[in-house]
Design goal:
Elements: E1 4-13, E2 16-26, E3 31-35, H1 42-50, E4 57-62, H2 67-72, E5 76-79, H3 91-101, H4 108-114, H5 130-142, E6 148-152, H6 160-175, E7 179-183, H7 187-193, E8 196-201, E9 204-209, H8 211-217, H9 222-230
Parallel strand pairs: 3-7, 3-8, 5-6, 6-7
Antiparallel strand pairs: 1-2, 1-4, 8-9
The site of adenosine-5'-triphosphate has 11 residues, from strand 2 and helix 1.
Pfam family, one: ABC_tran
Keywords: Antibiotic resistance, ATP-binding, Nucleotide-binding, Transport
Subcellular location: Cell membrane
């Protein structure tokens, strides 16, 4: 059974077709990067996948069931863009809240360590730096011990050291048999972390291959491949 199956999924916002006839299949244990220029449909695709948006047409299944059922079963951990926390809660409170929502949570001490927040556990989430906030959101996604992690531009505000630790944690999580899908604008991160890169442009998949295969399209350069595939100048 595939972890993710999107079958010809289309979603409009008024006259704008954000995602059109999107096909995406992801098997267990993969780390998949979703790339695409601004407005390509990455966030919409992830929202459709999580059941936060309904498709106009097409089907979405996670672990062979509708997204809402997979979420209820505690199989999914997500880090959507710009999700907030209750002001005044501490990092530990946030981790405990997530743990309480899932049937098989990870130990809080492991979650805090994986997110690099052990020494910030008692800090209020509304007093964290930008990069620390991202890490707290990752901790929230991870705490339930989900089998699929969906991360929308997860490392955006992290510094170099935090990024390295974060991506090491993500790879380690996948090596335990879990599945990770993340969006990013950092091509080198997709190249270094993902087994597979899916490139979106104007709401459709224009490439779905290994980082090596994508680089070949650009004569060895992922940046050139991205420009060729998406028709964008970056
Ligand atoms: N709620 C909405 N209402 C109207 N249009 C929307 C809405 N959400 C997204 N769109 C439009 O749908 C298209 C895809 O947007 P989406 O946010 O999925 O792109 P993205 O690839 O995540 O972009 P970015 O890299 O800038 O985050 C864009 O044209 C966007 O303006």
């Amino acid at each position: 059974m595939n972890v993710v199956e999107l079958n010809r999924v289309t979603r409009h916002f008024g006259a704008v077709r954000a995602v059109g006839d999107l096909d995406l299949t992801i098997g267990r244990g993969s780390v998949v990067a979703l790339l695409g220029p601004n407005g390509a449909g990455k966030t919409t695709a992830l929202s459709l996948l999580l059941g936060l948006l309904e498709p106009d047409r097409g089907s979405v299944t996670l672990f062979g069931r509708p997204p809402s059922a997979a979420v209820r079963a505690g199989l999914i951990g997500a880090m959507p863009q710009d999700s907030g926390f209750v002001p005044g809660a501490t990092v530990r409170d946030v981790v405990e809240l997530a743990r309480a929502l899932y049937p098989h949570p990870l130990p809080a001490v492991d979650v805090l360590a994986a997110a690099g927040l052990t020494d910030r556990a008692g800090r209020r989430v509304d007093r964290l730096s930008g990069g620390e906030t991202q890490r707290a959101r990752f901790a929230f996604a991870l705490a339930g011990g989900p089998e699929l992690l969906v991360l929308d531009e997860p490392a955006a505000a992290m510094d170099v050291t935090a990024r390295q630790a974060f991506w090491d944690g993500v790879r380690g999580y996948a090596e335990d048999g879990n599945t990770v899908l993340f969006s990013t604008h950092q091509l080198h991160e997709a190249d270094a972390v993902a087994d597979r890169i899916v490139v979106l442009a104007a709401g459709t998949v224009v490439a779905d291959a290994t980082p090596e295969q994508i680089r070949e399209i650009g004569g060895g350069s992922l940046d050139a491949a991205f420009r060729t595939l998406t028709g964008s100048e970056r």
